[in-house]
């Protein structure tokens, strides 16, 4: 069942990435709330799905906690403003690191993590994905 779960989360990652990028690159197609906060919510769900992909047998609450802490660590590192860090954030990798600390991003990460955990819990209740 571990392989089936990995495929499930791999597919969820592949679906999640274009949605998250679309909120940044084509915001005109989304309502204001999704345009403003959607990218951070999708980032958190993608991190959850990625960690679940790597650790398919860990409990959903553990994966949720780990992924939320990763999100918060990424957000907190934005407070560090050394010249080399700012230069790194201005590269294509910068989309992963972000540019400025916002408390609202932390709320978005919590929402995204909870949404992903709820989806994982529901999908894993299907007999096909059970251990």
TrEMBL record:
<feature type="transmembrane region" description="Helical">
    <location>
        <begin position="63"/>
        <end position="80"/>
    </location>
</feature>
<feature type="transmembrane region" description="Helical">
    <location>
        <begin position="32"/>
        <end position="51"/>
    </location>
</feature>
<keyword id="KW-0472">Membrane</keyword>
<protein>
    <submittedName>
        <fullName>DUF2809 domain-containing protein</fullName>
    </submittedName>
</protein>
<keyword id="KW-1133">Transmembrane helix</keyword>
<feature type="transmembrane region" description="Helical">
    <location>
        <begin position="100"/>
        <end position="123"/>
    </location>
</feature>
<feature type="transmembrane region" description="Helical">
    <location>
        <begin position="7"/>
        <end position="26"/>
    </location>
</feature>
<dbReference type="InterPro" id="IPR021257">
    <property type="entry name" value="DUF2809"/>
</dbReference>
<keyword id="KW-0812">Transmembrane</keyword>
<dbReference type="Pfam" id="PF10990">
    <property type="entry name" value="DUF2809"/>
</dbReference>
């Amino acid at each position: 069942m571990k392989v089936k779960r990995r495929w499930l989360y791999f597919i969820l990652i592949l679906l999640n990435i274009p949605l998250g990028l679309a909120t940044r690159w084509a915001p005109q197609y989304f309502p204001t709330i999704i345009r403003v906060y959607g990218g951070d919510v999708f980032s958190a769900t993608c991190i959850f799905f990625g960690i679940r992909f790597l650790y398919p047998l860990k409990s959903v609450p553990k994966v949720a906690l780990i992924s939320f802490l990763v999100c918060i660590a990424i957000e907190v590192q934005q407070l560090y403003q050394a010249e080399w860090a700012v230069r790194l954030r201005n590269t294509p990798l910068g989309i992963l690191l972000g540019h400025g600390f916002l408390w609202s991003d932390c709320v978005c990460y919590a929402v995204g993590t909870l949404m992903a955990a709820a989806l994982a819990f529901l999908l894993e209740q299907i007999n096909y994905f059970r251990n």
